[in-house]
């Protein structure tokens, strides 16, 4: 690679660095009782987790490292796998579905519940500052609904936050920082998701009555 191009990717040129986001299910959710006695379908709508992030100067005003670089983020699969991995620990049987099911379809497939997770907001940013430091911040909100044969038993909003920072001369380090921040936000939200589902009295009572 020509020296001039290397210098550009280290500094001001509009280079693109893909962000890898790994699944981050939570194993910290505290359940007061045994796993829910149910066969549950899980639908995840994560369309908002597709984003291109542009690095900006740190609010302190120090440094313009890698300004102009672009960081494509696609965390849709990571969230879906994280949701399934979290719920599988808390529900007897879990089946992923590509579209939500109504009560008739749920009963026809022998399911006791349908859990729907939708991304409401996805705020993500990356700043570069003095000493070649990258800082990423992520805020995530998810709406959670759970239906049984008795109807809607659970509807809540959960939150996840992630912050990551690292110093490096290379602009692709920004992609690593972003990836880890998104993973932290997902795991944070998954802990709330697990505790919400496992400890919902209405959901547990409804499923216990149908088992």
Question: Approximately what portion of the residues adopt beta-strand conformation?
Answer: 35-45%
Question: In terms of quaternary structure, what is this?
Answer: single chain
CATH topology: Double Stranded RNA Binding Domain
Order of helices and strands: HEEEEHEHEEEHH
CATH architecture: 2-Layer Sandwich
Overall pLDDT, averaged?
A: 87
- Please give the domain count: 1
Q: Number of helical runs?
A: 5
Low-confidence stretches: 1-8
Approximate shape: elongated
Which class of secondary structure composition applies to the elements? alpha/beta
CATH class: Alpha Beta
Head-to-tail CA distance between termini = 64 Å
Share of residues in helices:
25-40%
Number of strands: 8
Q: From the alpha-carbon coordinates, what is the Rg to the nearest angstrom?
A: 21 Å
Question: CATH superfamily, please?
Answer: Lipoprotein like domain
Mind describing the biggest β-sheet? 6 strands, mixed
Short overview:
The chain is of the alpha/beta class.
Structural write-up:
The chain has 5 helices and 8 strands. The protein has 211 residues and is an alpha/beta fold. It has one domain (3-210): Double Stranded RNA Binding Domain (2-Layer Sandwich). Strands 1, 3, 5, 6, 7 and 8 form a 6-stranded mixed β-sheet that branches. A hairpin with a 2-residue loop joins strand 7 and strand 8 (151-167). Helix 2 (76-87) packs parallel to helix 4 (173-198). The longest helix has 26 residues, at 173-198. The protein starts with a helix and ends with a helix.
């Amino acid at each position: 690679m020509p020296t001039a191009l290397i210098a550009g990717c280290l500094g001001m040129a509009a280079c693109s660095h893909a962000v890898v986001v790994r699944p981050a299910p939570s194993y910290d959710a505290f359940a007061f009782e045994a796993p829910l006695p149910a066969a549950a379908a899980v639908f995840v709508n994560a369309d908002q987790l597709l984003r291109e992030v542009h690095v900006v100067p740190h609010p302190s005003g120090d440094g313009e490292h890698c300004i102009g670089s672009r960081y494509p983020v696609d965390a849709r699969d990571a969230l879906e796998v994280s949701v399934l991995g979290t719920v599988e620990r808390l529900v007897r049987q879990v089946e992923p579905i590509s579209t939500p099911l109504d009560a008739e379809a749920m009963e026809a497939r022998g399911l006791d519940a349908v859990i729907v997770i939708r991304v409401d907001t996805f705020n993500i940013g990356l700043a570069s500052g003095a000493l070649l430091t990258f800082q990423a911040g992520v805020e995530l909100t998810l709406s959670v609904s759970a239906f049984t044969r008795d109807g809607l038993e659970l509807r809540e909003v959960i939150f996840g936050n992630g912050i990551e920072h690292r110093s490096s001369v290379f602009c692709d380090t920004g992609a690593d920082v972003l990836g880890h921040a998104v993973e932290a936000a997902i795991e944070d939200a998954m802990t709330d998701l697990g505790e919400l589902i496992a400890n919902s009295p209405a959901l547990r009572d409804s499923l216990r009555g149908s088992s």
